[in-house]
Amino acid sequence: MGAAGSCGAVHGDGDYIVALGPNYMKGPNSPYCGRRISAKNTSNGKTVTVTVADTCPTCGPGDIDFALGPWNALTNNASPGVFPLSWHFS
C-alpha cells in the first residue's frame, strides 16, 4: 500500500484506479474523486473501468495515469510508457 492519493484514500498497485491531470483535479475536494471512467486501448481493443483516486501533476488535458492493475490489463504487462487511448466518464 502506498500513501493516500489526493482524493484521500490509500490504494494498492493492483487497484483499478487512475490519476487525472490538474485540469480536472482542482484540489482535495475535486468533484471527480470517485468518478468511474471507461478506458479503451485503441491499439488492441482492451477495455477497463477504473475509479478516479488521485492527481497526476504532469498529465496534460485528456491524459490518464493508470495504477499497475489497469495498466497491465490494458497493455498486456507492457513497460511503462504511453499508448493510444479513448476514455469517457461512465
From TrEMBL:
SUPFAM superfamilies membership: Barwin-like endoglucanases (SSF50685)
> Magnesium: is it a keyword of this entry?
no
The cross-references to InterPro entries, in alphabetical order and at most eight, read: Expansin_CellWall (IPR051477), RlpA-like_sf (IPR036908)
In its keyword annotation, does this UniProt entry include Acyltransferase? no
Superkingdom: Eukaryota
Keywords on record: Signal
Protein name in UniProt:
Mrsp1
Q: Which organism is it from?
A: Trichophyton equinum (strain ATCC MYA-4606 / CBS 127.97)
